[in-house]
From TrEMBL, chain A:
Family, per entry: Belongs to the complex I subunit 1 family.
Chain's gene name: nuoH
Chief localization: membrane
Protein name listed in UniProt: NADH-quinone oxidoreductase subunit H
Physiological role: NDH-1 shuttles electrons from NADH, via FMN and iron-sulfur (Fe-S) centers, to quinones in the respiratory chain. The immediate electron acceptor for the enzyme in this species is believed to be ubiquinone. Couples the redox reaction to proton translocation (for every two electrons transferred, four hydrogen ions are translocated across the cytoplasmic membrane), and thus conserves the redox energy in a proton gradient. This subunit may bind ubiquinone.
Transmembrane regions: 6-28, 75-99, 105-127, 148-168, 192-210, 239-262, 274-292, 304-327
Entry's Gene Ontology BP terms: aerobic respiration
UniProt entry keywords in alphabetical sequence: Cell membrane, Membrane, NAD, Oxidoreductase, Quinone, Translocase, Transmembrane, Transmembrane helix, Ubiquinone
Enzyme Commission number(s) of this protein: 7.1.1.-
Subunit and interaction comment: NDH-1 is composed of 14 different subunits. Subunits NuoA, H, J, K, L, M, N constitute the membrane sector of the complex.
Domain of life: Bacteria
Enzymatic reactions: a quinone + NADH + 5 H(+)(in) = a quinol + NAD(+) + 4 H(+)(out)
Subcellular location: Cell membrane; Membrane
GO molecular function annotation: NADH dehydrogenase activity; oxidoreductase activity, acting on NAD(P)H, quinone or similar compound as acceptor; quinone binding
TrEMBL record, chain B:
Protein name: NADH-quinone oxidoreductase subunit I
UniProt family annotation: Belongs to the complex I 23 kDa subunit family.
Catalytic activity: a quinone + NADH + 5 H(+)(in) = a quinol + NAD(+) + 4 H(+)(out)
Keyword set, alphabetical order: 4Fe-4S, Cell membrane, Iron, Iron-sulfur, Membrane, Metal-binding, NAD, Quinone, Repeat, Translocase, Ubiquinone
UniProtKB/TrEMBL annotation, chain D:
InterPro entries named among the record's database cross-references: NADH_quin_OxRdtase_su_C/D-like, NADH_UbQ_OxRdtase_30kDa_su
Protein name as catalogued: NADH-quinone oxidoreductase subunit C
Molecular function terms, GO-annotated: NADH dehydrogenase (ubiquinone) activity
Gene3D superfamilies: NADH:ubiquinone oxidoreductase, 30kDa subunit
NADH:ubiquinone oxidoreductase 30kDa subunit domain boundaries: 67-178
Length: 330, 151, 372, 179
């Protein structure tokens, strides 16, 4: 019992540090990546190649005054950003970083992650409603309908993976995919799954982009229409927490994609599995998030919804049926 | 129904070409000019604020206080003062104040000057903590500074 | 895609697309009465950057109004210079030498390309794409450097005088322009059309959005790319030729659909046409003086004069009334965006907020030109 | 049979008495410059009628002067002939105590023909019927002319100031306006 307390403390600190550093330095990666795509340099003044820029931003956000607009429910206004941050942090518990690095091997970890994701959506709704700003209300209404529309195909594609591995536990899923990239779910070759798996990978990736309100699906905080969406009235750390929440959601989305489809901590040639492979895969996926954001314009709310209802959901159900049939046959 | 499929195929292809283009841009060199370290050079006809021309030897302004430029200026930013020259003929410039906060750099004053006493300077980054440096920009003082640093 | 609206009075709220909003590109306020996200009534409120240029014209002599013209539409300032120079030359009967006319056309067309590039960047910014802005500004900087070399200023030009232009163009300007055209021609298919025009997200975002019929254009007096996007073949350079435009052959892009996509395609084709004009003008550039003889004290004889010029946004008309004095007696500036925006109220009804902003972006508004 | 001639036929019923004089209207324009010759103010307003002018010199083909209440029928004819309303503006003739409203019509596409319609109003209560029922473009142009000159446009849907602040009580473009 005594080691488990130390172990819990160690993991608690480890996850906090991992989450904090990631939230800060993803901002830096995004600005550097956007810069390079737009043929400019990005932050380069503060510290070598701008590496201290996130720290400077953090200090600036901390030192600013948190303005609460008049006639607004204080409690709700202050809890919304915290509510955006906590689910993203807690879902790090269930993610298997490598064979022996996992905070707690929870039995139904896939379910836990999606439950926490919908709490994150609550935060957006609360933030928009509590700030009493017309733009924020429009943006929170959009965010709810968008997250709802994209959770269904996401869950259905996850079911196809769970059907394959037979268990809802992320560690199991990852263990099943060890030993080289041909064992990964994306390229699952035996008994004919290669047909359906990459479709569900693409659908899952699109839904994770939409789930984290990232362009081209950033209808919620559409800078050029709704000024700053649900974050309009937030200054200093309220805005900071919302941004950290968004970046952590991206990290969790990337971890989920790698664990479900890209074989978790497995090395592509099956030689030296370890946590560094897991991190490399996450950061490649995160770079594609950034890459997509700086390439595409924004979709319009109705086209976005019918993209989900008319395209993604039918495809994911068909995919599910085929996978189930294949499992039955072989 | 085929509109449904063409959307998917055509859309997917256009999305991928978009990604390919930004990827190529990601790896191509930086285009921007890092301002404080790389200073841009102005073209010969660049219009900075107007400045007096001093003749080479004496360094005194060529201006004969004829008053053409204050009349030509649409936003009357030029105030001139001159006094009789000791040698009896013509007038000598004593004060030339340009209100650079109202000047629209239209060039009508430089055009109206028949005595080649006014031209556009080429400094673009004028900075000061005090607005009066621009409202009462003393071109005589600037000419003396120029002469001093030329020596 | 406008949904029939039953005006549920209790759920209608007024949203101020305020004078300070990222999508209005200036200080335009649109009072939107909204039902959910649908617009029930849209009413633009103007005057936040009104400076009364017409009274300034009456105060100074004719030459002193030239700097004002560039402050109205700073994206296509040279066309406004050209319009004012044309109307006064018409009134006072001043001859402009051949070379000056060619230089005027070259610089105006270069300025038109710069204006369309900036519209394209701002339009994509409204629709959420950030990167195209940087690519467009990369090209636009080349034009601004070229124009700075010959006119002296970068945005608000005061380059044209009655009877010609201020400075002659040198060989470096000519070779620079040819390199720029070659470079833009190589970049247009990739960075502009493949990345954006053929992108399915953009097509879905602006196709069949903000339909404006030809009849609506005529009744509201919309001209320029807005009218040409609705099938009206009207371009002042062709219908009412001025300066040396008849000597160049270029065609007018007209798209009948009338939606935002049509207006988008009109402007993209106009960039190519302007490049054609510049090349022909550079080939046929005659030698000679750039400044005709213009009287020092301009006193045009009394009467009503009108000159029309094609700017990047439409027909710019100068209605000048002279009474023989050295000041203009009365100057009316018919700015194109003033009429183009007047149809926003009627077309935006029943639209979504996101579509209305896409539609406003496709109208290519420059607010100081509306408010004068 | 150019558009302008066709238009002139259409306008004939409105201006039966006038003969089509071709010399430019400017001639009988009062020489405001030589102010020492004080004429009687209202006598020399230009005669009502249709007049050809040289487009190269003045920019418009036809110059029509009409009475204030003929403005709407003229606008109706213009609309039927396919013209569009380019601009409405006012001119303040202080010396003759008159306010003038100038309507510019032009053709969108096809053969080029610009028509200028002018009407004169007494300076003390300048009232003219609105054409915004025929051309919605006039709505804003008339509001702007009211804003700058104080000309009342009868029947205008909401004649309020468009460019100046709502509570401004002056009309800046009048010649006797001192800031």
């Amino acid at each position: 019992m005594e080691t488990s307390v130390w172990r819990a403390l160690l993991y608690l600190v480890g996850i906090m540090v991992f989450a904090g550093l990631n939230a800060a330095y993803l901002g830096w990666c995004e600005r550097k990546g956007a810069g390079r795509i737009q043929r400019r340099i990005g932050p380069c003044e503060v510290g070598y190649a701008g590496l201290l820029q996130p720290i400077a931003d953090g200090v600036k956000l901390l030192s600013k005054q948190l303005l609460v607009p008049r006639g607004v429910d204080h409690i709700l206004f202050r809890t919304a950003p915290v509510l955006a941050m906590i689910p993203a942090m807690t879902s790090m518990v269930a993610i298997p970083f490598s064979a022996n690095i996992q905070a707690r091997a929870i039995e139904l970890s896939v379910l836990l992650l999606f439950a926490l994701a919908s709490i994150g959506m609550m935060a957006v709704l609360l933030g928009g409603w509590a700030s009493g700003n017309k733009y924020a209300i429009i943006s929170s209404a959009r965010a709810v309908s968008q997250n709802l529309a994209y959770e269904i195909p996401m869950l259905v594609t996850v079911i196809t993976v769970v059907l394959l591995t037979g268990s809802l536990e992320l560690r199991e899923i990852a263990l099943k995919q060890q030993g080289g990239f041909w064992h990964w779910n994306v390229f699952r070759l035996e008994n004919g799954h290669f047909l359906t798996m990459w479709i569900s990978f693409i659908i899952f990736f699109i839904c994770s982009v939409a789930e984290t309100n990232r362009a081209p699906f950033d209808m919620a905080e559409a800078e050029s229409e709704l000024v700053a969406g649900y974050m309009t009235e937030y200054s200093s750390m309220g805005f900071g927490l919302f941004m950290m929440g968004e970046y952590l959601n991206i990290v969790v989305g990337a971890c989920l994609t790698t664990t479900l489809f890209l074989g978790g901590w497995d090395c592509p040639l099956g030689l030296t599995p370890g946590v560094w492979w897991f991190l490399i895969k996450i950061y490649i996926l995160i770079f594609t998030f950034i890459w997509i954001r700086w390439t595409y314009p924004r979709t319009q709310i109705y086209k976005l919804l019918n993209l989900s209802w008319k395209f993604l959901i039918p495809f994911s159900f068909a995919n599910l049926l085929i996978t189930a049939a294949l499992i039955k046959v072989f | 129904m085929n509109q449904y499929w063409t959307d998917i195929i055509y859309g997917g292809k256009s999305l991928l070409t978009g990604l390919a283009i930004t990827a190529r841009e990601f790896f191509s060199p930086v285009v921007t000019e890092q301002y404080p370290y790389e200073v841009p050079t102005m073209t010969p006809l660049f219009r900075g604020h107007t400045e007096l021309i001093g003749n080479e030897e004496t360094g005194l302004p060529n201006c004969v206080v004829c008053g053409a430029c204050p009349r030509a200026c649409p936003s009357n930013c030029i105030t001139l003062e001159g006094k009789k020259a000791e040698s009896g003929k013509g007038r000598v410039l004593t004060r030339y104040i340009l209100d650079f906060s109202k000047c629209s750099l239209c060039g009508l004053c430089v055009e109206s000057c028949k005595f080649n006493a006014l031209r556009f300077s080429r400094d673009y980054n004028l900075v000061s903590f005090d607005k009066d440096d621009f409202i009462y920009m003393d071109l005589m003082k600037r000419l003396e500074e120029q002469n001093r640093c030329k020596k | 895609m406008s949904v029939p609206l039953h005006l549920r009075s209790d759920e209608v709220f007024v949203l101020n697309l305020g004078p300070q909003h990222p999508a209005t590109h200036g200080v335009l306020r649109v009072k939107l009465t909204m039902d959910g996200e649908y617009i029930v009534k849209a009413e633009p409120v103007l005057g936040y950057i009104h400076r009364m240029h017409e009274k300034m014209a009456e105060d100074g002599i004719f030459a002193q109004f030239m700097p004002n013209t560039a402050r109205m539409d700073y994206l296509h300032a040279l066309a406004f210079n050209h319009g004012w120079a044309l109307v006064v030359e018409k009134a006072a009967g001043i001859e402009v030498p051949e070379r000056a006319e060619y230089i005027r056309v070259i610089t105006v067309e270069l300025n038109r390309i710069a204006s369309h590039l900036l519209w394209w960047a701002a339009f994509l910014l409204d629709l959420g794409g950030f990167t195209p802005l940087l690519y467009a500004f990369d090209d636009r900087e080349k034009i601004i450097d070229l124009l700075e070399r010959v006119t002296g200023s970068r945005l608000t030009y005061c380059y044209m005088r009655f009877g010609g232009v201020l400075n002659d163009i040198d060989d470096e300007f000519i070779t620079g322009t040819r390199d720029f055209i070659k470079r833009l021609r190589s970049r247009l298919p990739r960075q502009y059309h493949d990345l954006v025009t053929h992108n399915i997200i953009l097509i879905k975002r602006i196709k069949d959005i903000g339909f404006v019929s030809a009849e609506q254009c005529r009744r509201y007096g919309a001209t320029g790319p807005v009218a040409r996007g609705s099938g009206i073949n009207y371009d002042v350079r062709k219908n009412e030729p001025y300066s040396v435009y008849p000597e160049f052959d270029f065609d007018i892009p007209v798209f009948p659909e009338g939606d935002s996509m049509a207006r988008y395609m009109v402007r993209m084709h106009e960039i190519e046409q302007s490049m054609r004009i510049i090349e022909q003008a550079l080939d046929k550039l005659p030698a000679g003086p750039v400044m005709g003889k213009a009287p020092r004290q301009l006193k045009p004889d009394a009467g009503y004069y009108y000159s029309a010029v094609e700017t990047a946004r439409g027909l710019l008309g100068h209605r000048l009334v002279c009474d023989g004095d050295k000041n203009p007696y009365k100057l009316k500036l018919r700015s194109p965006t003033f009429s183009n925006l007047s149809l926003f109220g009627e077309v935006a009804e029943g639209m979504l907020l996101a579509d209305a902003l896409a539609f406003m972006g496709s109208l290519d508004l420059v607010i100081p030109e509306i408010d004068r | 049979m150019t558009i302008c001639e066709k238009l002139q036929q259409a306008l004939q019923p409105l201006f039966p008495l006038c003969d089509v004089s071709s010399e430019p209207l400017v001639k009988d324009e009062p020489q405001v410059a030589d102010s020492e010759k004080e004429e009687s103010q209202t006598a020399d307003t230009p005669t009502v009628g249709v007049l050809w002018t040289d487009a190269g010199r003045y920019g418009h083909h036809l110059d029509i002067v009409c009475l204030p209440d003929q403005v709407v029928p003229v606008a109706g004819i213009m609309d039927r002939e396919g013209f569009f309303l380019e601009a409405i503006t006012g001119v303040d003739w202080l010396k003759r105590q008159q306010l003038e409203v100038v309507y510019d019509y032009n053709r969108l596409g096809g053969e080029h023909c610009r028509v200028m319609v002018r009407t004169f109003l007494p300076r003390n209560n300048p009232v003219v019927p609105t054409v915004s029922s025929v051309f919605p473009a006039a709505d804003w142009h008339e509001r702007e002319t009211y804003d700058f000159y104080g000309i009342q446009f009868q029947g205008h849907p909401n004649l309020i100031r468009i460019l100046l602040p709502e509570d401004a009580d002056f009309h800046p473009l009048l010649k006797d306006y001192t800031p």
